[in-house]
Amino acid sequence: MRQVKRSLGFIYDTAITYPAPATLNYNYNFGIYALVVLALQIITGIFLVMFYCSNASLAFLSVEHLMRDVPYGWFIRYLHANGASFFFIVVYAHLFRGLYYGSYFFPRRLLWCSGVIILLLMIITSFLGYVLPWGQMSYWAATVITNLASTVPFFGQKIVNWLWSGFSVDNPTLSKFFSLHYILPFVILAFVLLHLALLHQSGSGTSSGWGRSIDEIPFHPYYTIKDFFSVILFIAIIIFFVSFIPNSLGHPDNYIPANPDQTPEHIVPEWYFLPFYAILRSIPNKLLGVIALVASIIFLLILPFIDRPLTRSSVYKPFIAKLNILFIADCFVLGYIGQSPLEEPFLFLGRLTTLIYFAYFFVFIIVSQIDRYFLKAVQKLPDNIVYNSLSK
């Protein structure tokens, strides 16, 4: 009973009386969108488990049976498949907003780190789920991605064999991936609850990038009404995609049963993996490519600990604002390169955009340190000198 009271008290403090800045706009709604999609993925996933068969000979047929014979099975399956895409859309938007407004600085370091861990778990879970339909692209994507572990010195091939549960991607691999794909969403949910608890502890930031706002209002009814309206609109967009263009974010080769004897012309993962896939392919050396792939996530994780400017938000730093926009554009270009063939000019563009991706972090840190130095220098000047220089 005491635990129930604590849980209800946490919900009440988080969703009702939580003091939120009065200046939050719709740019801060991506978190609630992600929570809605996560709930949608768990509910639809539980339904899909009832009809899915994790056997290499029957997996593709079980999905086709669900789509063709089960009443509204196609709708549930398309909700789940497109829900994964929308999950990544809102999380990426949430990430870019945090970068732009400096939401990862103290006291929100742990909050940011928990969000990056959620992103990493999402990537793993989505990859496992992409394999389950056992289509042609699912099979070969699983083969290519799991083979990346072979680059680990000394133990690489043993790790690959453990991932496969054998000597190739086959029925034991599918069973293992299915079990992990079912469990990991609940792990993500646990980290989401931790993320909310850390947000409740540190407080919501504002577009200015500073800490708690002086002008605060209770979360309910002001933001609950705003969030309810935007969530209804967001769900309407998802239903539109599911009803009219359900395959627009997928790959047509995945509607062909897996054939280990026939390699697709171009092996590509789902669109939300394409920027990371482009980074991997842009480096000729396989081991260095895997290191760069892992580093692309690690850099996001350690960013709050290596960058400590006095001015947080890009609103007050025009150069940093342009740098953030360049970084976002670079990620879009990486996504386009990731689905392009390995030939010129895509090879050159892939290496250039990969260089820009990693250079962003170094340039960002250097500029932030210069910004910190000049702000400290300005703070030491007499007020009349600062006022006169600004008035000119």
TrEMBL record:
Binding of heme b b562, residues: H80, H181
Gene from which the chain derives: cytb
Family matches, as Gene3D superfamilies: Cytochrome Bc1 Complex, Chain C
Alphabetical keyword list: Electron transport, Heme, Iron, Membrane, Metal-binding, Mitochondrion, Mitochondrion inner membrane, Respiratory chain, Transmembrane, Transmembrane helix, Transport
Source species: Physarum polycephalum (Many-headed slime mold)
Gene Ontology CC: one annotated term: mitochondrial inner membrane
Family the entry assigns: Belongs to the cytochrome b family.
Example of a GO biological process term: mitochondrial electron transport, ubiquinol to cytochrome c
Annotated protein name in UniProt: Cytochrome b
One Pfam family in the UniProt entry: Cytochrome_B
